[in-house]
Amino acid sequence: GKGMSIHQKIAEIESEIARTQKNKATMGHICLLKARMAKMKRELIDASTKASGGGGEGFDVSKSGDARVGLIGFPSVGKSTLLTKLTGVYSEAADYEFTTLTCIPGVIKYKGAKIQLLDLPGIIEGAKDGKGRGKQVIGVARTCSLIMIVLDAMKPMTHKRIIERELEGFGIRLNKKPAPIFIKRKDKGGVSVNASVNMTKLDEETVKSICHEYKLANADIVFNCDGDEDDLIDAIEGNRIYIPCIYVLNKIDQITIEELDILDKVPNYVPICAFHEWNLDELIDKMWSYLDLIRIYTKPKGQIPDYTAPVVIPRTKSSIEEFCNRIHKQIMKQFKYGLVWGVSVKHNPQKVGRDHILLDEDVVQIVKKIKQELTKGKLQIQSQKKKKK
């Protein structure tokens, strides 16, 4: 069918890239092939993000908790053992809402946060060829706050490369930040290329031919990094998702200490043995730090703060306003000011506005406008409306 043909086309381009010797002369050709391939993959990504929400045999997992961690790995690397042990050690008895799914989320409680653990099955086996429910799984993977790739200590590297390639193919970038390449589309004037750094990987001609492949006829492109063709294609596509990733090396009871020392030097790695429950605490700690969450305690007026149920928010979205919206969308309408105790303020408590940035374990009391102030605001709005008329 039609789906298959996209996959065949992608496979053909992949093999052509592999066959082509990489040198100055073929550079432009390879870049164009990569751009063509990215355009085809976009169709797959669009299909997967639609599939993950929709019906059918949908792989729809309601997002609960403060963060979502996806586990990916080949069959028999011990993913399910790991899930069972983690949810067993760190969770209260989870009441699974059994759905018709192969995906049962486990929930772990850690530092007052609820973290949803998802086993993402079937990504590796044939997801790229549109077989199985790979597509929906990828849609769910793109909503994770962290991905853990579970590897078998006996053959880690081959698995690692295959899984990374799958995820990359679906627009997921692991442990990367978006390259600072800025594209400003315009009505006329062709493509202009500017760089604030010395460009060693791309020349202007190649940049222009990639733009041409994308029918980007008029644009100003600014490189604030020495980017390559993949970075440029990511910037043009604009649908990439950047997710932190931890490589979990399981079954370390089966390798030698020397081998473990070598693997220990690889960044983003945590060696464990799920079966013997070795080093799971380091894994959970690392998971917490990669999720980059902070805990904010709420304080009702005249009471002591509730330290048992923090509001958990990403460190990157930690203004008072974002904190309020995490609790309830209506709060900001009545917001007068916040009172904050903690590291983010000089005085305890300190009066703050909606833009104040909170830090881990701050205590917050929200002071609301009283009825008169609210109605006064409404009356002003009404009188302004009358004037307009």
Give an overview in words:
With 389 residues, the protein is an alpha/beta fold. The chain is 39% helix and 21% strand. The chain has helices at 2-19, 24-53, 79-90, 134-141, 156-169, 204-213, 229-237, 257-264, 280-291, 320-327, 331-334, 371-388; strands spanning 67-72, 106-110, 113-119, 146-152, 172-174, 181-185, 191-195, 219-223, 241-243, 245-250, 269-271, 293-298, 311-314, 335-341, 350-352, 363-368. It starts with a helix and ends with a helix.
Summary?
By secondary structure, the chain is an alpha/beta fold.
Number of DSSP strands?
Answer: 16
What's the overall geometry?
Answer: globular
Query: What's the helix-strand series?
Result: HHEHEEHEHEEEHEHEEHEHEEHHEEEH
Q: Spans with pLDDT under 50 lasting ≥5 residues? A: 52-59, 92-102
Radius of gyration: 25 Å
Percentage beta strand: 15-25%
**Count of alpha and pi helical runs:** 12
> What is the end-to-end distance?
60 Å
Oligomer: single chain
Structural class: alpha/beta
Helix residue percentage: 25-40%
Task: Give the overall average pLDDT.
Answer: 83
Q: Looking across the biggest beta sheet, what order are the strands in? A: 2-3-1-4-10-11
- Major β-sheet, in short? 6 strands, mixed
